[in-house]
Amino acid sequence: MIPAYTGAQIRRAERPLLEAGQGPALMQSAAHALANQAVLELRDLYGRVYGSHVLGLIGPGNNGGDTLYALAALAPRGVRISVVLTGSTAHPEALAAFVRAGGRTAEASELDDLLERVDLLLDGVLGLGATRPVQLPRIPSDLRVLACDLPSGIDADTGAALGAVPGAHATVTFGALKTGLVVGDGHLAAGRIRVADIGLGRHLPEPEAWVLEDHDVSKILHSSDPGWRAGSVHKYRRGVLGLIAGSEAYPGAALLSAGAAVAAGLGMLRTHVPPAIGAALLAAAPEAVPLSATELKQLGVRSRRNDKSTTGRIGAWALGPGLDATDGNGALAHALASELPAVIDAGALSAVTPGAGEARWILTPHAGELSALLARTGLHIGAAEIAADPLRWARWTAVSYDAVVLLKGPATVCAGPDGYTVVSRSGGAELATAGSGDVLTGLLGSLLAAAGPHPDARTLVRLAAAAAYIHGRAGVLAAAGGPFGAATLLQTLPVALRDLGV
Ligand SMILES: NC(=O)C1=CN([C@@H]2O[C@H](COP(=O)(O)OP(=O)(O)OC[C@H]3O[C@@H](n4cnc5c(N)ncnc54)[C@H](O)[C@@H]3O)[C@@H](O)[C@H]2O)[C@@H](O)CC1
Ligand SMILES: Nc1ncnc2c1ncn2[C@@H]1O[C@H](COP(=O)(O)OP(=O)(O)O)[C@@H](O)[C@H]1O
């Protein structure tokens, strides 16, 4: 997992180096990394660097300074270099170096024309210093953009866009990954992210969040499960998931969750759905073993007596997809009383009370559902506000409910009640299709059932992020075949798991 830090953490880590007079050296390292990436972008575009024309949009601070030095470093390679200053000033030494290297400072009135003609744009308007809405020019959609440290106008901590931020194809970020690049608008605007080491290493504190990479997924699953891949495995050891889902209004949600749980490879699936959809569920997932209302009631009663030996072999719950309050809550109450780990989604989110999670629940809201969860703690925060600072509100809710929270969105934020946070960035907007969340719930339930008894909250956070990552990968695979609906994810999930080495 890659550590990510807030802007303030990065600034604190830089302080001792700046105090030791290393500011210019830091800037040179940053500029060098940016110039190297510009070379790679030009080679990727045209197969050559010589003879190309690179434009820098330059703001008033060090971000503009980095970019000016990077442009100066490109000139000896036969690159024509131009800049437009967005304000009345620019970093003086860097501007002088740029001019010495043969660079040209164009007037603002020339900008539109230059944007049509140049081969590459370096966005050096604002980096860590972006604090208020920024006015930036409209960038032609076919112009390749390389952002210096952060796309200008992205808040380094929250990822919120301060104004209309031009998206970058790639971002070279200095010292360490910033949280604002991996969530919210920043996640969407950053493009490919390269972290350039400028020597902050030992000065960096405990990271604010961790970001999953491909190879983390199988590590997480192998370290969290008690060995179902070992020779002695049998179906109960491999994991039994209880699924309470579906209603006459939303029958498909139960089918998608059940299908995903089976596709992810669990030992046994027990399902409790309304009678009207029982036959359809068994047709979609013949592996499912129905869980009757009587059995459910017994589970609840026994666990209240603390009789842990008789939990019907169910190791975890997936609760809520397609559930409505009328037919679900009786069954839900029994499941929630059973003291087993549970994925709690959609209709079941309205059955949880603040403080009651005992760090064994994973709540899986989107921003609208998170807003409703927060409202039950007395805080009225709208979905747009949540999307503007997803790390903060996912964590807040995790603390308030004493539960792990998986906050859905373009990037998925998984936070535990102790603040431990893991972000999954796989997949894209192709997942924004009705029912894809139901697939995620079945998949995560399946991983949770395989995780063995009493996983701790940090294990739950990692499992939740791994499920989001696999889900995203399944979306990418499904999209390769053209537009798709959520049911296609049931076919691509096993392929995603295999590709990720699970
Ligand atoms: N601090 C350091 O030692 C290092 C900084 N580096 C670079 O320096 C950047 C941070 O530099 P700065 O602190 O100078 O900040 P920026 O260059 O990001 O911003 C410059 C100034 O612009 C002003 N500003 C904020 N919002 C604005 C808006 N909407 N319109 C116009 N002006 C606005 C602010 O007052 C800010 O101080 C990093 O992102 C990175 O690129 C790197 O060179 C590595 C070392
Ligand atoms: N723009 C997006 N980019 C990437 N993933 C997205 C995007 N929009 C939604 N998703 C993902 O798609 C899923 C949608 O879940 P949800 O909102 O619960 O849908 P539903 O209730 O219809 O099943 C979540 O995993 C979410 O993270």
TrEMBL record:
Q: Which ranges carry the YjeF C-terminal domain?
A: 218-500
One Gene Ontology BP term is:
nicotinamide nucleotide metabolic process
Report the superkingdom from the record: Bacteria
What EC number(s) has UniProt assigned to this enzyme?
4.2.1.136
Q: Which GO terms describe its molecular function?
A: ADP-dependent NAD(P)H-hydrate dehydratase activity; ATP binding; kinase activity; metal ion binding; NAD(P)HX epimerase activity
Which residues of this UniProt protein bind AMP? 408-412, 437
Keyword Transcription regulation among record annotations: no
Query: Which CDD domains does the record match to this protein?
Result: YXKO-related
Q: Please report the stretch or stretches of sequence annotated as the YjeF N-terminal domain.
A: 10-206
Q: What does the note accompanying the cofactor annotation read?
A: Binds 1 potassium ion per subunit.
Q: What class of enzyme is it?
A: lyase
What Gene3D superfamilies does this protein map onto? Answer: 3.40.1190.20, YjeF N-terminal domain (3.40.50.10260)
Q: Which cofactor does it need?
A: K(+); Mg(2+)
Residues bound to (6S)-NADPHX: 253, 322, 366, 438
What InterPro entries has UniProt attached to this entry? Answer: Carbohydrate_kinase_pred_CS (IPR017953), CARKD (IPR000631), Nnr (IPR030677), Ribokinase-like (IPR029056), YjeF_N_dom (IPR004443), YjeF_N_dom_sf (IPR036652)
The reaction(s) catalysed by this protein are: (6R)-NADPHX = (6S)-NADPHX; (6R)-NADHX = (6S)-NADHX; (6S)-NADPHX + ADP = AMP + phosphate + NADPH + H(+); (6S)-NADHX + ADP = AMP + phosphate + NADH + H(+)
Keywords linked to the UniProt accession: ATP-binding, Isomerase, Kinase, Lyase, Metal-binding, Multifunctional enzyme, NAD, NADP, Nucleotide-binding, Potassium, Transferase
Job of this protein? Bifunctional enzyme that catalyzes the epimerization of the S- and R-forms of NAD(P)HX and the dehydration of the S-form of NAD(P)HX at the expense of ADP, which is converted to AMP. This allows the repair of both epimers of NAD(P)HX, a damaged form of NAD(P)H that is a result of enzymatic or heat-dependent hydration.
Instruction: Give the record's subunit note.
Output: Homotetramer.
Q: Which family does it belong to?
A: In the N-terminal section; belongs to the NnrE/AIBP family.
Protein name according to UniProt: ADP-dependent (S)-NAD(P)H-hydrate dehydratase
